[in-house]
């Protein structure tokens, strides 16, 4: 799959990311771990190889520390994978395309509506005293609530001015 382009023999340390930089040299950068500040870190050139990069290939540092490249997968259709199973082809069904007419909606401006303020009357509750009787179960008296009528506020129509 991958072919070795240049032998550099870099010894990899843990906690660093090794890569081939723009100039074709092997470089490393500190990986994001606990205790390290966020953001970009300084990259450090480890070995100067001067590899000329060709488009369509992925350049990387392999396990042995050499610069290698692999052909990038481009233009592969989704769903087509080479497997040993027999592939069954389905017939393509053509669907009729229907053009929809563009409907223009008219912009309607709404006037702000003022809400009417309605005042509620406070209802006073009567204090109920409990009688304590010996050996007899305590009966609670039913409290009657007065029905509160809401006043209907009628607004007078504004007078029209004569011209």
Describe the model.
0% of the residues lie in helices and 17% in strands. A three-stranded antiparallel beta sheet has the order 1-6-5, with no helix packed on it. The mean pLDDT is 78. It has a domain at 3-71. The chain is mainly beta.
- Quick one: biggest sheet? 3 strands, antiparallel
Q: How many strands in all?
A: 6
Radius of gyration: 42 Å
Low-confidence stretches: none
Supply the helix-strand structural class. Answer: mainly beta
Helix count equals 0
How much beta, percentage-wise?
15-25%
The sequence of SSEs as H and E is EEEEEE
Which sequence of strands runs across the widest sheet? 1-6-5
Give the overall pLDDT as a whole number.
78
Q: What characteristic shape results from the CA principal axes? A: elongated
Distance between the ends: 95 Å
Name the helicity range. under 10%
What are the SSEs and their pairings?
Layout: E1 3-6, E2 16-20, E3 26-30, E4 44-47, E5 57-61, E6 67-71
Antiparallel strand pairs: 1-6, 2-3, 3-4, 5-6
Question: Can you give keywords for this protein?
Answer:
single chain, 163 residues, mainly beta, three-stranded antiparallel β-sheet
Describe the structure concisely for a colleague.
With 163 residues, this protein is an all-beta fold. Helices cover 0% and strands 17% of the residues.
């Amino acid at each position: 799959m991958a072919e070795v382009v240049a032998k550099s023999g870099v010894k990899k340390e843990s906690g660093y990311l090794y890569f081939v930089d723009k100039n074709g040299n092997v470089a490393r950068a500190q990986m994001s771990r606990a205790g390290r500040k966020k953001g970009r870190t300084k990259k450090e050139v480890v070995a100067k190889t001067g590899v000329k990069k060709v488009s369509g290939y992925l350049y990387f540092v392999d396990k042995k520390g050499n610069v290698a490249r692999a052909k990038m997968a481009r233009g592969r259709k989704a769903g087509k994978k080479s497997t040993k199973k027999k592939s069954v082809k389905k017939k393509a069904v053509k669907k009729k395309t229907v053009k929809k007419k563009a409907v223009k909606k008219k912009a309607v401006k709404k006037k702000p509506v003022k809400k009417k303020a309605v005042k509620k009357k406070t209802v006073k509750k009567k204090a109920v005293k409990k009688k304590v009787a010996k050996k007899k179960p305590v009966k609670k008296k039913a409290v009657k609530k007065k029905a509160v009528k809401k006043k209907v506020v009628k607004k007078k129509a504004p007078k029209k001015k004569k011209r």
